[in-house]
Every structure is written in structure tokens, then in C-alpha cells.
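re the bet — no i am not wrong, look at it urself. input seq straight from the record:
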Amino acid sequence: ENALETLGESHSAYDNTINDQTRQWWAFKPISRPELPSSEGEAWSDHPVDRLILARLSSASLNPNPPATRRAWIRRAYYDLTGLPPSVADVEAFEADPSPGAYEKVIDHLLASDRYGEKWGRHWLDLVRYAETNGYERDNPKPETWRYRDYVIESLNRDKPYDRFVREQIAGDELDEVTSETLVATGFHRLGIWDDEPVDADQAYYDGMDDVLSTTGQAFLGLTIGCARCHEHKIDPIPHEDYYRLLAFFNNTFNNIREGRYKKSPYTLNTTRVIASGEAIKQHDLLKRRIEEQTKNLENQIARYEERIFATFTNPEKEDAKDQRTRRTLIKEKKEAVLDAEDLKDYDGIQAELRALKQQRLPKLDSALVIQENGPQAAKTHVLLRGNAHSKGAEVQPGFPAILGFEDPVIPAPSTDARSSGRRRVLADWMVDPANPLTARVIANRVWQFHFGRGICRTPSNFGQNGEKPTHPELIDWLATYLMENRWSLKKLHKHIMLSRAYQMSSRANQEALAKDPENDLFWRFDMRRLTAEEIRDSVIHLTGHLNLEMGGPSIYTPVPQEILATASRPNAAWGKSSPEQQNRRSIYVFMKRSLHEPVLKAFDMADTDSACAVRFATTVPTQALTMLNSAFLNDQARLFASRLEAFSKDGTEQLAEGLRLVTSRNPSPEELVQAEGMMNELTQDLGLSHTMALQRFGLMLMNMNEFVYLD
């Protein structure tokens, strides 16, 4: 019997009405801690995750794979949590540690590393369609967007409770304590594509809000809410009206339309907001007032002199004499005739002082791309018939999806001096309410997905009826309750999952299991995976010893071939330039331009930045092999790698052994060294290459090894 046949009946007919049956859909039911199956005497009886996995395997007459080697596990753990490989010393220390807590020590070490936030921050940025430009033809930059990226990395490194992380992004400007950090978090709302020359301004306005609402629904709630924009949701019980009730929470935040006129740029003071410290703002304002006072004083002194000069004119009241340009010309010509030498010297000195004062620049205050509402009075929200901005139907009030059974929200009346309506805070509080059946399930499933290569629900942003049913619904609920009971700590959830035997399994194939469960839906083995685009680029630079681990700050630009730049609408302004040291920073800090992608990242399936990306599908195409062999980046890194090996030792065999150690995180076998020396001999003797050139070819070959690019 195929294991997939035991997963439950498929849903061939969809019911998109709200009734007792649709309320019983697994994702809409309340989260509850499941009862763990009995597994006394089983090797997998210690860990709740293992008991739930084993019960499902046993029902399909399958056995779990044996544990992976320690080397395979530590490479898996390092890449999963940091996106970088372990050193040979790290591997050997772990292999030599006989203590029961050896695995836990490694996990704790990795979770405490700053590299963790960079690795998992990339997962989150995929979900929220992070990019630093607007898209469309001009694809202009979004100012200060990198601060949101840094906020995500810092939040994950500090293990900020996930419920707080959600609330800050949805309503960071409406919380009880608004800080520069919570304001930066609201940059989430500004990350989408934006058209600066729409044909229909009103429709573009609602397109922008749909981007925010659809992304919120998919990333946080696992619902395809956007499918109800133009009509009733065709699959899920989400009425057309529910879409606009949810939209009403956001319908006070887009500032690019005023009285039917579309602003050329949405980045006004409403969205690019000062986030400097209070002391910095105080000093800035003091200097600004001093400059203004001095400027006014000097201008008054100049005015008194100029009135004396102007009074000597024949007819100072004539219209042409009142023109400022004419006045300046006349004053310049007549000042020496009217003013004596001492007054003239004083006048010219005041003019020079004024020019110098006007050239004095105030220090730039830190700012960030944030959200700020139009005021405490929210705009009215109407159902748009067929999603048409010009076909308004009934007015609606903010509300939650009716299928989930919550009462209508109570929006507190904002104070008279409030800057916003307070609606998004109510939405955010509901999203992280433990009674909400979606939020905790969705993030628990995502954490599992990024450890195991697929979610327990394999459609991680679609928990609705058109998505896949979970293979282990009890496991999702176990992880969701564990997360909430541990104060929404993602790091504790990582550790809980990684200490399971399920995470420690080998990826070895088993013909009997493959026949029953060819897709490994029941997790009888660990799936081998290729490194992500960022992991490949970062690992290659790491091999050379030149990886720059500087964190944060404005994004960097890597070299891009001229033929790629030529495809841009404005080739000369398409891409910036960074120093060689900055170019070697981690990939999460590379500038994310919607219309032009970093070539190596693009070749290896980087996320689509136009919409929320829940899953990256690993393709296998010829351009990837060509990139690994022929690209300027890989060949430049191979040269640096060869230089590192030559600096390591003057002995050729030791150079080859060190190269193999760095690439595979293990000591090479005698047979591998013989093969390596044979390759070097062929390159130097048969092809006539110098030792250095041959070592570069050898290094390039190592970077193309499956053992380097794939994880067991």
C-alpha cells in the first residue's frame, strides 16, 4: 500500500460558504495540545516530535532511517542555523565529544551566533517581498529600506518573541511604547512594488493596499485573502465583504493620493521619518535655530544698507524697480557710489558671512522608511464591485474573517492628538491572540519547513482548502503550542526540533520505503538538499578566507557584467559600486534591485521579490553549471583560494590536502590525494600550466564538488 493513500481523503469538491462543515477544516479549528501516542520501549520514545513522526510511520509499515554521521549532522546544523559551513576543527571536536549533551552544545553555540539572524532573516525577507526598489520601468530606490533588513536580523538574534515581532511590523507606530525600532518595523508595509506613473491613480491606490493585505494574509496567517478582492473566494469560505473588512484596518496608511492627485513620490515626511535619538534631535534642532537666528540678523543688517542705497534711486516705487533681480543689479552697481569705504567693507563682510552661513549644512539625522497614518480619523472603506476602484458598493467596518468565529473588533476611540486610528493595533493583537488558530501554526510549520526542506503542510502560505492537507496535523499543533507556551521563542522551537531523532536521520535511500513513500511525506529519512543561492556565494567567499562578516548598514554592490547592465532601462544608473572589501560581505547585504539581480544569486533560484515567496524551488539548469565553471566571480574566487593554499604551505601535497579539508570539512582519504595529485600533474605536465594556475583549476574543481554544494 502506498503511504500517501493513508493520509486521508482528498477534497475533490470545495465549499466556500461559512457553515459547520467548513469550520471543521483543520486550519480553522482551535489549536490544542495533542495527546502523544504511546511508544514505550521504542528508541524514539523520548522526544514528542519523534513519537508523532514514528506513529505515522508505523501506521504505514515504515521504519525511520538510522542516524546520520556526526559530520553530516553538524554540517546540516551549521548551514541550517548560520548558512555557513563548520571548520574541520569544529567537526573533529564534535566527533570526539562523547557527552550526552554534545548535540545540544552545538545548537546552543549556533543559536548564539550573529550569523543565525543573517541566515533566518533571509527566510523572513523572502516572505515579506523585501526589495530596495519600487519596480516598474524606472525601478527607483526606496530610501533607507536596509534599516528594515537590519531590524529583522537584530530581532531574530535577540530572540524577540514572535508575537512581538508580528505586532511591531503590523502596528509598530501604534503600540504603547513607540521607539525607533518599532517604527522601522513598519517598513514592512512599504516593501512592495509601486508605480510612479499609473494610468489609473485610484486603482493603483487599491493595488498598493492589496499588496499589503495579501502579503499579511499569506506571510502571517497562511490565507490567500487576495483571492476575495474581486468576488467571493472561489475555494475558501472568505466572502468578498471579508476582504474589504480586513482592508479597512489598513485604509488610512497610503499617502500618495490627495484629492484625486497622484504624488510623484510616496516618500514624504509621512513615510520617511526621523528615527534618531532624542539627544541627536535636540542638538540638531539647537543648531538649526542658531543658524536661523544668525541668518535673520545678517539679513536685517544687509536690508538696512540696501534701503540706503535704494533710496537714492530716482523713482524707487516704479514697478520694474520692485523686481528683486532688478534691485540686486542696481544695488551692485550703485553701492560704491552711495556707501563710504568703511560701510562698504562692512556690507561686503556681512554678505560673505551670510553666504558661508547658508552653506553650512545640518548634520543628517537617521531616518527610515516607515508607515504613518493620515490622522486619527480613518477613511471610509467600501466594497469595490469586481475590485474596481470606481464601482463602490456598501460601506464596511473593520472585521476579522467570519469563518474563524471571532466577534467584531472594538476599535478604541483615538485621542484628539493621536497620529493614527489605532485600527492596525487591534488587528495585530488579534493576529497573535492564542485563540487565533492560524498565526502560531503558520510560523511553526515554516520553521519545520526550513529545517526539513518542506513543511508539514506543504503549502506554507496557503492553509486553505486549495492547499495541501498536513501530513501530521498533530505535529503542527504540538509545535504551535510549544511555541506559545515558551513565550513565542523561535530559538527554543529550533532547539526542540533539532534535538529530535527525526532531525538526526540520515538521507540514505531505502528501496522499500521509496516504493511506499517516494516523496518522503512521512519523513522516514532526511532529505538531501542543495545549498541556497546565498549559501553557495557565501561559502565560496568563505573558502578564500576573505568573507567579510561586518553586519548592518547600507547595502553593498557586487560586480555585475556589462552585458547585464546593458539590459537595464538606464544602464549607467542601474547599479552602484562598492569597495572590494565590502563586496565580500554576506549575500543578505547585497542590494536588492527588482529589475536587476546579482548574477550568482539569480542563477541559483533567489526569491522573486515582487510578491511573498514562501518556497524556493531548486531548479537544475545548464546556466548553473556554467556559472560555477565560467563566471568571473567563481574564477576570481578560485584565484584567491589558490593564493590561500600557497600561503598555507609550500608543499604541493599539503596544499591539495588543505583544499580538500576546507571544502569538505573533513580530512581527505589517501585515494583522494592520489587523484588530486594526478589532476595537478596533468595540468602542469600535459597542459603546461604553472603550479599556481593549476592550483586555481584545482580549486575551481573543488567548488563544483557535490559534497560542497549539497547537504546530506
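see?? Residues 3-112+437-529 form one domain. told u. also The longest strand covers residues 392-396. so pay up
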